[in-house]
Amino acid sequence: MAKVELTPLRPWDDFLPGSERFAKPDTRDMAKWNNRVVSNLLYYQTNYLAVALGVFIIIGFLNPLGMFTAMAVVLAVFLGSIWAGENRAVINNFKRQNPTGFLIAVMIASYVLISFLGSVMVFMSAVTLPLALIFAHASFRLRNMKNKLENKIELAGLKRSPMGILLEALGQQEENIQKIQNFLEKKRKE
């Protein structure tokens, strides 16, 4: 298995070229649209990370107290949930038996505490705005030949990246990986 490495930052003129490299996705063919999004997420992952950090920092500068408050609350709730999971048998059992429910409970507790402090919109903007920008770019950006080649290398398992691991955990690559593995197995037998 290849080691995990961050893909290089793609040139910004490749990331944001003229309108000729953008097109509306075919909403009738969800598989093709999903393939485009996954391919762009893998190829431009470092650019997307830079955009997300930039938006997060800008929103933090616009309302530093709200952002700091929200981050402190989320960190405190997260650390508190870890401590409670380790030191309280009931919570530890719930965490082991229902990890999704535990995560939802932590998120709800964070939301309630942040809403008492009035920083919900600041923090949600800092999280959802970058995600919306990334999804829009990944949906509308047409793939090029380098993009397709890099994705085939990633899917074949010759190269691993953080976004590839995340997409695999979300079940977005299993079908493509299986096709490539079957193809490689077939070629080895020949």
What can you tell me about this protein's structure?
With 190 residues, the protein is an all-alpha fold. Helix content is 76%, strand content 0%. The chain is built from ten helices and no strands. The chain has helices spanning 12-15, 30-43, 45-62, 64-87, 89-97, 99-117, 120-140, 145-155, 162-169, 174-189. Helix 3 packs antiparallel against helix 7 (120-140), helix 4 packs across helix 7 and helix 5 crosses helix 6. The longest helix has 24 residues, at 64-87. The radius of gyration is 20 Å and the shape is globular. The mean pLDDT is 76.
* Structural category: mainly alpha
Q: Extract low-pLDDT stretches.
A: none
Calculate the mean pLDDT score and round it: 76
**What string, H for helix and E for strand, traces the elements in order?**
HHHHHHHHHH
Please tell me what the overall shape is.
globular
Number of strands: 0
Helix content: over 70%
Largest sheet: none
* Termini gap: 23 Å
Gyration radius (Cα, Å) is 20 Å
Structure annotation, total helices: 10
> What proportion of the residues form beta strands (DSSP E)?
under 5%
List keywords for this structure.
76% helix; 10 helices; mainly alpha
Chain-wise SSE layout:
Layout: H1 12-15, H2 30-43, H3 45-62, H4 64-87, H5 89-97, H6 99-117, H7 120-140, H8 145-155, H9 162-169, H10 174-189
Helix pairs in contact: 2-7, 2-8, 3-4, 3-7, 4-5, 4-6, 4-7, 5-6
